[in-house]
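re: that complex we talked abt at group meeting.

here r the seqs, copy pasted straight from the sheet so there may be weird spacing, ignore it
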Amino acid sequence: MTSEGRWITLEGGDGSGKTTQAELLAEWLGARGRTVLRTREPGGSEVGTLIRDIVLHHRGEIAPRAEALLYAADRAHHVATVVRPAIERGEVVIQDRYLDSSVAYQGAGRVLDATEVRDLSLWAAEGALPDLTVLLDIDPLVARRRLDAADKPFDRLEAEKEEFHARVRESYLGLAAAEPRRFLVVDATRDPEDIATLIRARVAVDL
Ligand code: TYD
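got the structure back, here u go
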């Protein structure tokens, strides 16, 4: 394994188990002597925390373009002040959600054009793309049941209708098919330890 900085993002619908897998991977890399930075979007920086509060908790409509710009603003600041510096220090950045979330949720899920949303994010992040993106793929109905079981209060987006989540899933799968070298697609209904093993195998090859 190299000692160079690396960047791994996790994507998937709400309730797909991204956070669990991010934690397991961080632990595994830490045990191998790597310095790991765990972060997320939206909200991986101080400014981002404020933006996160708007996009997830604002009551009432946010115009689709304004919403896309808010996620892009969070991303621009996060990449510039948190992600890039950590990679330059030689750390492994493990991040919940990145621009694929914008394409899937704002692009396919909403009224905006997916390519425009992606271009906006790429502009915001000065073209930065992760070394590896793990897509935890799950039927949104199964994910919904998991979230219900966890009994967490819904945020604004989690309350969107099932049809929306089905479109998000399709969009993610399309993104992964278009960039097979960057993506690892894993069936998120598998046992969490099995999923962790698959991710480790890929990381061990790539990093
Ligand atoms: P979060 O509480 O981080 O949820 P999760 O555990 O599902 O990751 O909420 C993030 C929400 O924001 C999630 O519903 C997806 C949405 N989102 C977008 O719509 N666009 C984006 O660019 C990002 C990063 C997130």
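couple things i noticed - The chain has a mean pLDDT of 93. The CA atoms of residues 72 and 120 lie 7 Å apart.
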